[in-house]
Amino acid sequence: xxxxxxxxxxxxxxxxxxxxxxxxxxxxxxxxxxxxxxxxxxxxxxxxxxxxxxxxxxxxxx
Length: 62
Description:
Elements: H1 2-8, H2 14-32, H3 39-43, H4 47-60
Helix pairs in contact: 1-2, 1-4
């Protein structure tokens, strides 16, 4: 996921990239496990950013 964030947002600092990667992966894992992520986790990342990251993640891992 870190590679996907770097691909989409190369200007971000490392700690921000790490935070975005962790948040995205945790939310994805919760959703796949049937757990609804806390609203706070979904509120601070715009839906468009999340969709862009998912596309970048799929590009990096294919």
